[in-house]
Amino acid sequence: MFEMNGRLALITGSNRGIGRAILLALAKQGANVYVHCRKDAPSARETAECARAMGVDAECVFGDLSDANAAEQIGEQMRSTMGMPDILVLNASYQIRNSWDRIGTEDFDLQMRIDFFSSIQLIQVCAPHMLEQKWGRIVVIGSVQQAKPHPEMIVYAGAKQAQMSMVENLSLQFAGSGVTVNNVAPGTIYTDRNTQVLQDPAYLKKCENDIPMGYIGNPEDCAAPVVMLCSEESRYITGINLYVDGGKHI
Asked: Which of these, 4, 87, 101, 165, could form a disulfide with 29 (CB 3.0-4.6 Å)?
């Protein structure tokens, strides 16, 4: 079950954190993979080597998703190497913490471009191949903030809500084509993005108390549901939002 030999996946923001865990989990199931990073970095090259060690092909692609041309540039890189992907995992995101009365145009535009508009652009680049071959998987990585927005992340939470609306919209448009579109919404996860704040014992305890299961998840907890949704076995699942958050959204 969930075997992916011969499939090709692009996972954005996959040189670290949840994206890296997803990429390596897909590689373990036999998928060839594209490691995406904003720019050429040792972490991206090292992640690709880890994937190759599992016996699959792996290439790095680079593009700053705050750039309006990044999606097409990533597409050009893929066309010149292993070709267009069968699986697209939209994991990359950007957070700016700010109180509601200090949100400015620059902060808003940057987060909405990276967290929402770049997703649309990458789907525009990748989905035609999926629709033509009548098989494809698109998984968006959302957030528990869809249900419980952080008071200092109004824009980020809004972008994640917008992504979910996009998932519901496109899942209907692609229904019957063999291409599914789904959302996976992590809760509090140990990644380098929040390592520093979680080092504060008081804040850590507060976070754990906000989670019904009582503990913070690991990136691998998010990877398994994504693998399932990218598999052939998930062919009858589309348009869903799957929380991976220890019950925090409740």
From this structure: 4
CB 104 within 8 A of CB 27: no
Rounded to an integer, what distance in angstroms lies between the CA atom of residue 98 and that of residue 11? 28
Q: Are strands 179-186 and 32-37 parallel, antiparallel or unpaired?
A: unpaired
Could you tell me the two tokens for 230? 């990218």
**Distance in angstroms (rounded) separating the CA atoms of residues 129 and 184:** 23
The tens-digit pLDDT sequence of the chain (250 residues) is 999 999 999 999 999 999 999 999 999 999 999 999 999 999 999 999 999 999 999 999 999 999 999 999 999 999 999 999 999 999 999 999 999 999 999 999 999 999 999 999 999 999 999 999 999 999 999 999 999 999 999 999 999 999 999 999 999 999 999 999 999 999 999 998 777 788 889 989 999 999 999 999 999 999 999 999 999 999 999 999 999 999 999 9
Residue in 106, 25, 10, 18 with CA at minimum distance from that of residue 59: 10
CA distances from 217 to 160, 201, 248 (A): 20, 17, 11
Beta-bridged to residue 35, according to DSSP, are 11, 60
Identity of the amino acid at 161? Q
| Amino acid in the structure at residue 194 | N
How many other C-beta atoms are found inside a 10 Å radius of the C-beta of residue 31?
Answer: 28
DSSP string, 160-176: HHHHHHHHHHHHHHHTT
Tell me how far apart the 2 most distant CA atoms of the chain are, in Å. Answer: 52
Taking Cα atoms as reference points, which of 159, 169, 184, 93 lies closest to residue 127? 169
